[in-house]
From TrEMBL:
The lineage of its organism: Eukaryota, Viridiplantae, Streptophyta, Embryophyta, Tracheophyta. GO terms for molecular function: identical protein binding. Belongs to the peroxin-11 family. One of its GO terms (cellular component) is peroxisomal membrane. The chain crosses the membrane at residues 83-100, 120-144. This is Peroxisomal membrane protein 11-4-like. Its main location: membrane. Keywords: Membrane, Peroxisome, Peroxisome biogenesis, Transmembrane, Transmembrane helix. It is a multi-pass membrane protein. Pfam families: PEX11. Homooligomer. Interacts with ARC5 and FIS1B on peroxisomes. Involved in peroxisomal proliferation. Promotes peroxisomal duplication, aggregation or elongation without fission. One of its GO terms (biological process) is peroxisome fission. It is found in: Peroxisome membrane.
Length: 230
């Protein structure tokens, strides 16, 4: 029990940890609003206010986050020319998303002209979706490489000594952990892509409260899993 509490404290001490928690509030309240809108208007209104407040607080909390793209490219630009190119496109799109998200937030709280909100939302969502596409492609490439590496290690494990077998088992475990984390990243990015598409090109599927709510929760909980202390 104490170990779980310690991990929760560590998780909530991270900016991403707080973001995933508030994102959960945001999309749970969206689903609650949809569920009770016809039967309990007062409760639906409260849920709508909770959703709006959560969304605004997340935008404020992400101030300056567009700079993390530079840091990501500096620390891990990619192991091959292809991955380096994809990393530039992915992080570039994410930087556009976070940068214009500042102006969207300022427009929604009344600091800037409210008419700018729709335009800033479109640019931010376009950058977001552009970046997520290349993050997804990169993760699938790395997952495929990991599967190939695991197959080679399995062959080596069958032919090697006991000491080599232990080292190989450890390497295989690391590959599997990395694969799970990348699959979580893919799930989060696909879910966020659905949310971004609802802003770029409104349509009945992406803009439905259930689609947005489930997508938001998938993204939040996949991020929660990735950021939870090991």
């Amino acid at each position: 029990m104490n170990d779980r509490v310690d991990k929760l404290v560590i998780f909530l001490a991270k900016r991403d940890g707080i973001d995933k928690l508030v994102k959960t509030f945001q999309y749970v309240s969206k689903l609650v609003h949809w569920h009770v809108e016809a039967t309990r208007p007062e409760m639906a209104q409260r849920a709508k206010q909770w959703e709006f407040a959560s969304g605004l607080s997340r935008k404020a909390f992400r101030s300056g986050r567009f700079l993390t793209g530079f840091n990501a490219l500096r620390r891990n630009p990619g192991s091959t020319p292809t991955l380096k190119f994809l990393a530039v496109l992915a992080n570039g799109g994410e930087m556009v998303y976070f940068f214009f998200d500042h102006f969207l937030w300022l427009a929604r709280i009344g600091v800037l002209d409210g008419k700018l909100a729709r335009r800033m939302s479109f640019i931010s969502a376009f950058g977001e979706s552009f970046g997520y596409i290349f993050f997804i492609v990169s993760d699938f490439i790395l997952i495929t490489e990991g599967i190939r590496a695991e197959r080679k290690l399995r062959v080596a494990k069958e032919e090697g000594s006991k000491d080599e077998e232990e080292n190989t088992s450890s390497s295989i475990k690391k590959i599997r952990v990395d694969r799970v984390m990348r699959l979580m990243a893919v799930a989060a990015n696909v879910a966020d892509l659905v949310i971004a598409l609802a802003d770029i090109e409104p349509n009945p599927f992406c803009n439905h409260a259930v689609s947005l709510g489930i997508s938001g929760l998938v993204s939040a909980w996949a991020g929660w899993y990735r950021n939870w202390p090991s």
